[in-house]
Design goal:
With 375 residues, the chain is an alpha/beta fold. It has helices at residues 3-7, 30-43, 62-70, 87-96, 117-125, 148-165, 181-187, 198-205, 230-244, 253-277, 282-305, 314-344, 348-371, and strands at 20-26, 49-55, 76-80, 102-105, 131-135, 177-180, 211-215. The chain has 2 domains: 20-244, Spore Coat Polysaccharide Biosynthesis Protein SpsA, Chain A, CATH 3.90.550; 251-370, no CATH class. It contains 13 helices and 7 strands. The structure holds guanosine-5'-diphosphate-alpha-D-mannose and manganese (II) ion.
């Protein structure tokens, strides 16, 4: 780093052997590794940089491909995570492993144009900003390579996010940015490892973060395929909700709510079938339906909502019993509140909705605390 340029700045950074760590989360990106490194090498000539690949034990051997190159090139590192998955978490761990002055995060599939890295770095070096976000949605940037459907989702999500969080980022969903490491280290404990939206989380994690933007053209994926799916979309909604509620509900609440809604569908479907089998006893049919719904709710929550804390073996059995007890108390709460409200004002759906909401919040809070113990 040219020392003179730094010395002039008010909050100059101490000297670092590596000035820039480029953190690259990977899952099944074997075919992109060598090309990305070659491009970084070209575009970052003259900068003391390193690349930290954070690979979630990809079955295609991405980590091996990185380590083969790392064996010859000391600028390349590979952090292989086992038994864990998740883009945001991978980025956070890669960033935590750095001792450079600046951190960049970018995708491995070459959709993020590495040629803007030097400009982003120049902005940080002035000492006037803490974070530079690469954006597709201002003059000079674009995302033509998104399919029409995905493009719509992306734009709606962007609008929603800007409204909900009052962020001025023009592309809050972007996973391409560069920032000061000291700023990141200060906020690391407040970040969520869930989901895809690492930049959004970082930009809203600390007040007074000075943010600049850098337009770029979002390119075509080089090799392999996208890992974006419904689950990741839900995770994003969960993150929004968590931010909106000021951390009162965790990002995973959205999964609990969706599983609960599915449970109602299971309950009704099984009731329908059970009525055909035992046409005489509604109570018996309804009991079977409720049992089915409880079981499917428990299993879905165990493998989706709380997948990072999944119960196994005996723990599953005791967990299930506890889940049913909580559910029973939740049902009593639900009916109790709804009846009381209905007695005050006879609007059935308001009373019913309030009761159900109360029930789901109770179930969620208690399950989180006593069954999967996330708090
Ligand atoms: N370690 C790790 N673990 N890496 C992951 C995981 C994971 O579970 N899931 C995805 N990645 C890596 C991919 O290997 C890739 O390098 C990068 O994260 C982005 O994943 P893609 O699957 O290519 O995402 P995308 O192109 O559909 O989504 C893009 O647009 C989003 C905004 O709409 C990305 O740029 C996202 O970062 C961005 O948020
Ligand atoms: Mn991609």
């Amino acid at each position: 780093m040219p020392l003179s340029a730094v010395e002039k700045q008010p909050d100059a950074l101490p000297e670092h052997r590596v000035e820039l760590s480029v953190v690259i989360p990977t899952f099944k990106e074997r075919g992109n590794v060598a090309e990305l490194i070659a491009r970084l090498d070209r575009t970052l000539a003259g900068v003391d940089w390193e690349a930290v690949f954070v690979d979630d034990n990809s079955p295609d051997g991405t980590a091996d491909a990185v380590k083969a190159i790392a064996g010859r090139d000391p600028r390349i590192r590979c952090l292989r995570r086992v038994g864990r998955r998740g883009l945001a978490g991978a980025c956070i761990e890669g960033m935590l492993s750095s001792s450079a002055a600046y951190l960049a995060v970018m995708d491995a599939d070459l959709q993020h144009d590495e040629r803007i890295l030097p400009e982003m770095l120049a902005k940080l070096r002035t000492g006037e900003v803490d974070l530079v976000a690469a954006t597709r949605y201002v003059e000079g940037g674009s995302a033509k390579s998104f399919s029409e459907g995905r493009s719509k989702i992306s734009r709606v999500a962007t609008k929603l996010t800007q409204r909900a969080l009052g962020t001025s980022l023009s592309d809050p969903m972007s996973g391409f940015f560069m920032m000061r490491r000291d700023a990141f280290d200060a906020m690391a404990g407040r970040l969520s490892p869930v989901g895809f939206k690492i930049l959004l989380d970082i930009a809203t994690a600390s007040e007074g973060l000075r943010i600049a933007e850098q337009p770029y053209v979002f390119g075509e994926r080089h090799e392999g395929e996208s890992k974006f799916n419904v689950q990741i979309g839900l995770e994003f909604l969960g993150l929004l909700l968590a931010k909106l509620s000021n951390g009162l509900v965790e990002p995973r609440f959205i999964f609990f709510a969706v599983v609960g809604a599915l449970g109602i569908a299971v309950n009704l479907a099984v009731l329908n079938v059970a009525m055909l089998v035992w046409p005489v006893s509604f109570t018996l049919a309804k009991s079977v339906a409720t049992f089915f719904a409880m079981t499917s709710n428990f299993l879905l929550n165990n493998s989706l909502t709380y997948r990072d804390r999944r119960l196994r073996g005996w723990g599953m059995l005791t967990g299930f019993v506890g889940f049913c007890v909580i559910g029973a108390i939740g049902a009593v709460t639900d009916v109790g509140l709804a009846s009381q409200l209905y007695a005050e004002r006879e609007v059935w759906w308001v009373a019913g909705f309030a009761g159900a909401l109360m029930g789901v919040l109770w179930n969620y809070a208690m399950s989180s605390m006593f069954i999967w113990r996330t708090r």
